[in-house]
Amino acid sequence: MDATTITVTGAAGQIGYALLFRVAAGEMLGHDRPVRLRLLEIPAGIRAAEGTALELQDGAFPLLQAVEVTDDPRAAFAGANVAMLVGARPRSAGMERGDLLAANGGIFAPQGAAIAAAAAADVRVVVVGNPANTNALIAAASADGVPAERFTALTRLDHERAVAQLAARLEAPVADVTGVAIWGNHSATQFPDIAHATVGGRAAPELLAERLGGTDAATRWLDEEFVPRVARRGAEIIEVRGSSSAASAANAALRHVRDDLLGTGGGRTSAAVVSHGEYGVPEGLVCSFPVTSDGSGYRIVEDLDLDDRGCARLGASVAELVEERDAVRALGLI
Ligand code: NAD
Ligand code: LMR
């Protein structure tokens, strides 16, 4: 089998460190698929990325054909089949939202252009660096000739968080949970939705009502505990751990790419993908939806009912995505 070239940006960061060894071990694309890794860093991160490359060599991974480290986006994306855009500019003290979007535009616009210029014809891109949805929008807009559908953003971590919280409340194994959905932005406005989820083959809303003593109590738990807990889990991790999620984010990014390229096996997951107007989400926004993949890219699941509360929650998150889009448009980034 030919080697797959995978470019990881921000490779010297904490997510990069938690991700690269698992990719090299074959956990992302399968234990029969050789991989070639390209590590992109800014000059200040090159030395640390080189150190990671030395450790990758020391892993003696049978599937790992090559590791290259560079600070040149064009060299990094040359021939890339998979691009994992992890490196981003974090918010620093005194930085306004517009400043953050502008700083990230300075990263994701050139990277989108470099992907268009140099990546393989079948390239698939996942944006992890925050604000992930809008960074994906910027990269896609700068990648002339690459279909926007190839650019996705990571909400799989939110999805896994929702699965884990639901399983914990019902004292069920996580493996029994299917059909959870994350709608909207990878931010505190997101809507984690269990309306169509099943646990051990039974409808999750029904099980929750049984366990919690009625439909009202189940709705209260969803509104007051489940949704805010999942939507603010990133902040909770930062508060408890002292830095943002890394291993769980790497795990989610790995699963996102695996399912995009190898398929979801008929099941549903969540990913932020470009909207064509599904569920009333304005065309062109990179928004999280329930998705499936047959291995040829994520497709939005279009036939789910959203009740009035669900529509309102999705609407609030989409309003935030529209604001972010308008801000980057005003900056001339898209
Ligand atoms: P980190 O600060 O540990 O590492 C980021 C790395 O990116 C640094 O090494 C930095 O030098 C590098 N970098 C910055 N600009 C770059 C550029 N232009 N090109 C290449 N590399 C560049 O951060 P981290 O913990 O690894 O997190 C990375 C990003 O992922 C952050 O934006 C974080 O908020 C985001 N994140 C997203 C999710 C999600 O679910 N979508 C979850 C967790 C973290
Ligand atoms: C997360 O969801 O854990 C991260 O997006 C949080 C962050 O701000 O990096």
What would your notes on this structure say?
With 334 residues, this protein is α/β, with parallel strands linked by helices. The protein has two domains: 4-153, NAD(P)-binding Rossmann-like Domain (Rossmann fold, 3-Layer(aba) Sandwich); 156-328, Lactate dehydrogenase/glycoside hydrolase, family 4, C-terminal (L-2-Hydroxyisocaproate Dehydrogenase, Chain A, domain 2, Alpha-Beta Complex). Helices cover 46% and strands 18% of the residues. It has helices at residues 14-24, 43-58, 73-77, 97-118, 132-141, 156-169, 204-212, 215-231, 233-241, 247-262, 308-330, and strands spanning 4-9, 35-40, 64-70, 82-85, 124-127, 151-153, 177-178, 181-183, 191-193, 198-199, 202-203, 269-274, 286-293, 298-300. Helix 4 (97-118) packs across helix 5 (132-141) and helix 5 (132-141) crosses helix 11 (308-330). Bound molecules: nicotinamide-adenine-dinucleotide and (2S)-2-hydroxybutanedioic acid.
Q: Beta-strand level of the residues, as a percent range? A: 15-25%
CATH class descriptor of the largest domain: Alpha Beta
Number of helices: 11
Strands of the largest sheet, in order across it?
3-2-1-4-5-6
Distance between termini?
A: 38 Å
User: Biggest β-sheet: count, sense, barrel?
Assistant: 6 strands, parallel
Order of helices and strands: EHEHEHEHEHEHEEEEEHHHHEEEH
Strand elements, count: 14
Quaternary structure classification = single chain
| Rg calc | 19 Å
Poorly predicted runs are none
Based on Cα principal axes, name the global outline.
Answer: globular
